[in-house]
From TrEMBL:
Pfam families referenced in this protein's UniProt entry, alphabetically: Cytochrome_P460 (PF16694)
Domain Cytochrome P460: 19-136
Gene3D superfamilies recorded: Cytochrome P460
The organism of origin for this protein: Pelagibius litoralis
Protein name as annotated: Cytochrome P460 family protein
Coiled-coil blocks: none
Entry-linked InterPro entries: Cytochrome_P460, Cytochrome_P460_sp
Amino acid sequence: MFETMKAAYAKSDKGDASGYSNWRQYSTQAYVSDTHGGRYVQNWGNSAAKAYGLYENAGTFPPGAKLGKDSFGVNAKGDVSVGPLFLMEKMQAGFNPDSDDWRYTMVMPNGSVFGTTNGAGSDNVAFCIGCHQSVTPEQDNVMLLPEEYRVK
């Protein structure tokens, strides 16, 4: 399934959609994320996001830190399908105070961009901001994966 997801996202002109799989993987396996539509997700981070591996102690991320979650769904018949790729990137101060300067992007399985903060379809990813703002400020709007799925 992983190769199928990579091929689907690579259809996008969003560079991170094809490059995220070269980042460090922080999940030991796919797990169900209710906040991502009940899909199975895996967590990834680029080198600027290396503090993500400190989990609750990660602190504030620097501009250029990128986190991603690829996803897939399984229906009642057991059929598996590629879901969206969820990306967040810490931008320079002032980019978007409402998101604490995170840019959220959702790439669909056909490679199209459903939305990106301060860009095309920005309203489509506004829910990302609202959800991530529920995280304690010490975690810089970053939701953490369940402990049992964390790479140590």
